[in-house]
Amino acid sequence: MQAQKKKNRREWMASVAMAIGLVASYGVLAFQGFLFLLPRRTAPRTRNLFAGRVSQFEIGGVDKFLDLEGNEILIRRKSDAAFQAFSSTCPHLGCKVRWEEEEGHYLCPCHMGIFDADGIAISGPPADAGQSLAPVPLVVDEEAGVLYVQVRDQERRMS
Q: Is the pTM here over 0.90, yes or no?
């Protein structure tokens, strides 16, 4: 009788272990199948646009550059190897900001919003709202002495 109970107990434990393994494996399979059906999220594709030779940018100066969509980007050379780029669109109402060389800041003429050389709003409605100029990524190829502006790749539309 004892041997019969031990055998039943062993069979029951083996059945439970198999059931747990089966449920776990089918659960993993179902989860992977679900992930397969979801659309893949990919980062937006970017490309580097030639902005110019590093030597053509003056230290402390700001140059204008147009991206693929015609948006104006302001590129500032801070030092020998340091560059910054910002969208020229004011985050407050979308007016175009301009670099004021004498004062060393960006000015939005719509509401006299002022941004410091690092694109941070220091007065006017943008400062009240805590807004700054949108930064644009840059790539400096020091070997070639070339500066690139990194922009989103335009999506190709089928006609």
A: no
